Amino acid sequence: MTSQLSPERLLGVGMGFWGAKALLSAVELGVFTRLGKGRANLAELTEDLGLHERGARDFFDALVAMKLLDREDGVYGNTPETDLFLDRAKPSYVGGILEMANARLYATWGRLTHALRTGRRESEDPADEDFFGALYADPDRLRGFLAAMSGVSAGPAKAIAAKIPWRDYKSFVDVGAAQGMVPVTIARAHPHLAGAAFDLPAVGPIFEEFVARNGLSDRLRFMPGDFFKDKLPTADVMIMGHILHDWGMEEKRVLLAKAYEALPKGGLLVVYEALIDDDRRENAFGLLMSLNMLIETPGGFDYTGADCQNWMREAGFAEIRVEHLLGPDSMVIGVK
C-alpha cells in the first residue's frame, strides 16, 4: 500500500499559495483587463503593465499553464472565463473579492497558526474589536469591500432569483445588502417585485449608484439602519446573505429573532452562506470560510444547514428546509 502512495497531492495543497498569488497579482496588475482590450505579445504586455522583463515571461506562461490565459503563436489572450469575470471593464466583473483577498486576506492568513492558538482575530489591528466599524468608516475600503461582496453574491443571487416561488410574494428586503447585487438580480428577474436594502447609512450612496446603473431605481430603495440597534423592515421575504457567519452565537440568535418579529405571518426568511455540510466532511470552502471568520472577526463562525435549521426553529420559524444554490453556497428557508 505505501509503495502506491504519492506525496503529490499534499505538496500541491501545501504549495497552493503559489498559484493563488499568481492569480491575485494578475488581477491587481490588470492583466485580464488589458487583454480585454485586445490580444498582445510578451513585449507589449510587459511594457503596458510596467513589469520587469526578468519575470514577465514565466508569469504569463504560468497563467497559461493554469488555464487563466491562452497563447497562440506568442500572442496572449484571455480565456472565455477570465474575459467574462476578470475584466474590470465588464459589468460581469467579480474580481472585487480577489482584490480584497490580495490586499488583506493573503497577508492575514499567514497568521492563521497564531489565531488558532489564541482564538483571536488577526486582521488589521487585533486590539480593535470593532472590525466593521473601522471598515465602514473608511470610504475607499468600504467601496472595495462592497464590490467584493457583489462578486461573492453574483452566482447565489441568480440561483435565489430562480428557486424562490417569487410569484407568491410582492416585496422583499435584503438585510446587509452591500452594493446591491442580490436585490438587483431578483428585481431584474421578477418585474412585479418591489425591493429594499437595509444596511448602515454609509452604504446608501454606493447602493443607489449601483441600482441606478442597472435601471432599477424605481423599484429598489435603500433603508438606512443598524440591524442590532434598529427594528428590521417588514416585507414578504427577508434575505440575509453572508451575514450570520460574521457574528457569534448570541448575535446570530438576536438577528434571527428580529427577522421573525419583522416578517408578516406567512413571510419567508432566506439565509444563505457557504453552509458546511452536516457531516463536516465535504464543503472545504465552508470550513475554510469559518477559519476566515476566526481571522477576520471577534466571534464569527460558519455553520451547517442543520445548525441553522435548529436556530430558526428556536426563533419560531416553521417549514424549514435547506436548498443548494451553487458551488459551496446553500440557503436555509423558514416560514413565519
UniProtKB/TrEMBL annotation:
Q: Is S-adenosyl-L-methionine given among the entry's keywords?
A: yes
Q: Which InterPro entries match?
A: COMT-like (IPR016461), COMT_C (IPR001077), COMT_dimerisation (IPR012967), SAM-dependent_MTases_sf (IPR029063), WH-like_DNA-bd_sf (IPR036388), WH_DNA-bd_sf (IPR036390)
User: Where is the O-methyltransferase dimerisation domain positioned along the sequence?
Assistant: 16-87
Q: Which UniProt keywords apply?
A: Methyltransferase, S-adenosyl-L-methionine, Transferase
| PROSITE patterns named among the record's database cross-references | SAM_OMT_II
The keyword S-adenosyl-L-methionine is annotated on this UniProt entry: yes
Which residue numbers delimit the O-methyltransferase C-terminal domain?
109-317
- Annotated SUPFAM superfamilies: S-adenosyl-L-methionine-dependent methyltransferases (SSF53335), Winged helix' DNA-binding domain (SSF46785)
What is the protein's given name?
Acetylserotonin O-methyltransferase
User: Lineage of the source organism?
Assistant: Bacteria, Pseudomonadati, Pseudomonadota, Alphaproteobacteria, Hyphomicrobiales
